[in-house]
Amino acid sequence: MALFSSTKPTETLDTATEQISTFIAPGATIDGPLTTKESTRIDGIINGNVTVNGSLIVGQDGKITGTVTATNLFLAGEIAGNVSASSGKVEISDTGKLVGDLIAKSLVIDENAIFQGQCTMTTEKTSAETAKERAASN
């Protein structure tokens, strides 16, 4: 048997990488709420609430003042406000700064990152818990 088989697929599916459909460039400022339906990258300044139905990347030059709701969040810039990624992952890089409360399923904070606030971790019910609830309701 060969160590490398040509019958194996050469591509793997990486669900963590999504195509960025909205981009706020450095130097751009938005005063007011921002809502997008797909993954977004912010390198500018947003003064208002941000809602993203997908992943949100806040670059090193990005700053948000307001509440942030996204499926996943990668923070290299600054957010002053509460963050909700209750079904996804939040990652704060070594240059990231979050001042506000956080709700997330998964959290990664790099060394030298700044996080000032409370964190609430969400969990999904296990199949045993779901089965127990169904049995109790019958």
Characterization of the model:
The protein is mainly β and 138 residues long. The protein has one domain (22-121). 8% of the residues lie in helices and 47% in strands. It is elongated, with a radius of gyration of 19 Å.
Descriptive tags:
single chain, 138 residues, mainly beta, 8-stranded parallel beta sheet, 1 helix, disordered N terminus
SSE blueprint:
Layout: E1 22-24, E2 29-31, E3 34-36, E4 40-42, E5 45-47, E6 50-58, E7 63-65, E8 68-75, E9 78-80, E10 83-92, E11 97-99, E12 102-109, E13 114-116, E14 119-121, H1 127-137
Parallel strand pairs: 1-4, 2-5, 3-6, 4-6, 5-7, 6-8, 7-9, 8-10, 9-11, 10-12, 11-13, 12-14
Gyration radius from CA atoms, angstroms? 19 Å
State the helix count: 1
**Beta fraction of the residues?**
over 45%
**Backbone shape:** elongated
Major sheet summary line: 8 strands, parallel
Number of strands: 14
Which segments are poorly predicted (pLDDT under 50) over 5 or more consecutive residues? 1-16
* SSE sequence, one letter per element: EEEEEEEEEEEEEEH
Spatial gap, N to C terminus: 53 Å
Average pLDDT confidence is: 85
The total number of structural domains is 1
Quaternary:
single chain
The secondary-structure class comes to mainly beta
Helix content: under 10%
